[in-house]
Amino acid sequence: MQPEVFVDILQEAMFMVILLVSLVIVPSMIVGLIVSIFQAATSINEQTLSFLPRLLVTLAAIIYGGHWGMNKVMDYTIGMFARIPQVVG
To answer: Is residue 1 predicted with pLDDT exceeding 70?
Structure first.
């Protein structure tokens, strides 16, 4: 296997991980920021107040984005199986 092939595979894998993690993390982070601003503006210091909205948004992101994420993972996996002759040979 040539080093260029390995670097390409590693780059694609890291991009896939970042893409799939950001699908769940970014909406949760935005909601957490909005709730934190609301808590700072109203002086409510309840630690559990931000938990439920972030949980619901995270579940919604998984529900609505899960199909897209699974399609990306399946395409990546099929591409890796198609590259086996290139890597081995």
So the answer is: no
What's the CA gap between 83 and 69, in Å, rounded?
A: 21
Q: Is the pTM of this model over 0.90?
A: no
Joined tokens for residue 59: 């579940």
Helices (H), ranges, the chain: 3-42, 51-82, 84-88
Which residue type is seen at 17? V
Domain boundaries, the chain: 3-88
One-letter amino acid for residue 28 of the chain: S
Distances (CA, A) of 82 to 3, 4, 15, 53, 76: 18, 17, 19, 42, 10
- Say if residues 54 and 31 touch (Cβ distance below 8 Å): yes
